Amino acid sequence: MSANTAEEIITLHSYPKAIAHIDADAFFVSCEEARQPKLKGKPVVTGKERGIISCANYPAKALGIKRGVRLFEAQRICPGLIILPSDYETYSLYSERMFAIIRRFTPAVEEFSIDEAFCDLTGLRRLYRGSYPRIAKSIKDTIQKELDITVSVGLSLSKGLAKICSRHQKPDGFTALPGYRLHEFLKDIPLEMVCGFGENTVELLTKCGIKNVLDYIRQPRDFAQKLLGKTGVELWHELRGEAIYPVATEEKEKYLSISKTKTFVPSSDCKELVHAQLIRNLESACIKLRRHKLSAAGLTVYLRSTDFKDDGLSAQLNRHSSSALDFTGICAQIFKLLFQPGISYRATGVILFNITAEGVDDRTLFDDPLRIEKIRQLTQTVDVVNERYGKHTLHLASSNLVSTLKRGHARSDLAWRKKELLKGETLRKRLNIPLLKLT
Question: Domain with 118 in it: what CATH number?
Fold first, then answer.
């Protein structure tokens, strides 16, 4: 590589595109703190019902407590740690309100996850009579004022750069990166900060003499193509401020796979219980298939032991289906191969793949059309009943042990909203409205 190539200037006009990434800080705990202000400033985590931490606020993170740590280990680090059960209904409501605030400023919003979004601000300066950083800052301030949660905002020329910026000064950060500042900013950004560069990719780039993001984008395009392929080229453009990934405003319609995982407390070495948990995962995954009018022909089953080791196997059906009844036989066979007596398991999971639109008829000559039609009608009836009385009211007998244990389980540490029901509500079916609890 010539000296001229190494010193290539990577700058653009201020904002040929203005993309913002809004990322809520420790979102689950922030929602709890907004609902109970007395928690603010104290080390707080959620995940009490799972036995491991699902979210930790920044006072807890400062002590070395992070997501995925077991609760007893976290309590050993911080005896005064406040541990709360996860209230996903409340978090979903806060998420919807956050996205609604962002849409007041721009209709081009991509809900990237429950607690983060990309939005395109390009062309809005005249409407708001202000700069792009000023508009992005207004979004941040409005969210904090109305929801009492903090978000970190990154503003730049592409989604890749915007995400780096939002992570730059967490929590409660704001970083705006115009095109003319690419050089001075990216020379201090490690490769690990790039969304799309995993641990192995970073290791590979480091061995090639790439120390930071600026080093990467100074390389020729062919370097990225040869080393990392299509994804590497797309990120090379994104990190140079050339927007490749659009802000996708439409809802996700195409699924490559659908997965359902369940961590159960306490862990168990009981073969019947672990199998029941697995079949319940399968039922839930098939419910999601039918909700999106899809069917699948591939199945992956995995078990996770208490030492966080995963064992899994995949198999294919000879036709597509969305009924759990068509998958239970092969699921049971895989389970027998994976389950090891004497090992305690903490989670099970299924992944349905090879997905296509519902109604595709790929039956073979050896399939029984009468049985297929009976299963289809039975599944429709189950969906009707469960829609009226709650998910899994009707379920497979092989998953019944899960329901039996839940009724007698000592796990009473549910979120308050699940324990304080309004008239007519059940644990599964509740009104999708926020409630204020005065304490």
Answer: 3.40.1170.60
pLDDT in tens, 298-326: 999 999 998 888 899 999 988 888 898 88
Q: Does the residue 428 lie in any domain?
A: no
Burial class (CB in 10 A: 0-12, 13-18, 19+), 301: buried
Strongest mean pLDDT among 17-21, 66-70, 422-426: 17-21
Q: Which long-range contacts (CB under 8 A, 24 or more apart) does 224-233 make?
A: 228/201, 231/196
- Write down the pTM of the prediction: 0.77
Q: Is the pLDDT of residue 418 over 80?
A: no
Other CB atoms within a 10 A radius of the CB of residue 94 amount to 25
* Rg of the chain taking only CA atoms, in angstroms: 25
Query: 426 phi and psi, to 5 degrees?
Result: -125, 175
Range of the domain at 68: 19-163
Domain CATH number, residue 379:
3.30.1490.100
Residues 6+ apart with CB under 8 A from 382: 394
42 and 157 co-located in one domain: yes
- Which class for 377: exposed (0-12), middle (13-18), buried (19 or more C-beta within 10 A)? exposed
Same domain, residue pair 389 and 275: yes
Q: Which residue has the tokens 């299924």?
A: 350
Q: For the segment 267-281, what is each residue's pLDDT rounded down to a tens digit?
A: 888 999 999 999 999
Q: How many domains does the chain have?
A: 2
